[in-house]
Write a structure and sequence with these properties.
CATH class of the largest domain: Mainly Alpha
Structural class: alpha+beta
Strand order of the largest sheet: 2-1-3-4
CATH architecture of the largest domain: Up-down Bundle
CATH topology of the largest domain: Glutathione S-transferase Yfyf (Class Pi), Chain A, domain 2
Number of helices: 10
Distance between the termini: 29 Å
Strand content: 5-15%
Helix content: 55-70%
Number of domains: 2
């Protein structure tokens, strides 16, 4: 049985957890802090990042590598289209969410969520320009019809459900304006729609419980 290691507060952890639940893959969870220097963690995730999984064949880190591994060992229900180009478009969209939206917005998280000193006006302006450009690019790719990549739930939805609310909230705290909504990305209706799925409800409930524990 797989073990998912990390924290239910982590959006990348929840990206993987949602995929596991949607696929019905049996797994256990192990609460693991990020940036651990424990050798047992570093042997599976050399940078001490979460999430990672433990398998009978060893550890595996990086959320997208984990999702692709799950797709290979458990092809059904599929979270990637069978058509090669369509599958590549899902991966493209997932990359945009993870690297061009979430990682860009992550620069705001210290100030927005963790009580870090405010960023300088120059940094805030730089990050805003970066986010606005990346959001406009994302809008060109995202379909929301009704799923982010089209008419089928895919890996891209695992990423979008876990990360889009954080991007919107962080920008709202930092700028007084949700830059996703301002950019014409109506992710709130989409997140509500995905949130009706039992797997998404489980992810959300576990996240809230972990946040309540502090």
């Amino acid at each position: 049985m797989l073990t998912l290691c990390g924290s239910p507060i982590s959006n990348y952890y929840n990206k993987v957890k949602l995929a596991l639940l949607e696929k019905g893959v049996p797994f256990t969870e192990e609460n693991t802090p990020t940036r651990s220097t424990d050798e047992a963690v570093l042997s599976a995730s050399p940078l001490g990042k979460i999430p990672f999984i433990r398998t009978a064949r060893g550890g595996l880190c990086e959320s997208q590598a984990i999702l692709d591994y799950l797709e290979a060992i458990c092809p059904q229900p599929a979270l990637l289209p069978a058509d090669a180009f369509a599958a590549a478009k899902v991966r493209e969209l997932t990359t945009f969410i993870d690297w061009h939206l979430e990682i860009a917005a992550r620069q705001l998280y210290g100030q927005a969520f963790f009580g870090a000193p405010p960023l300088s006006e120059g940094n805030l302006a730089r990050i805003r320009k970066q986010l606005e450009g990346n959001i406009a690019a994302f809008k060109r790719l995202a379909k929301f019809s009704p799923y982010v990549a089209g008419d089928t739930f895919t890996q891209a939805d695992c990423a979008a459900f876990a990360s889009l609310p954080l991007v919107g909230l962080a920008s709202k705290v930092a700028y007084g304006e949700d830059l996703l909504l301002a950019g014409g990305v109506d992710y709130k209706a989409y997140v509500k729609f995905i949130g009706e799925r039992p797997a998404a409800q489980k992810v959300a409930a576990d996240r809230k419980a972990a946040q309540a524990k502090g």
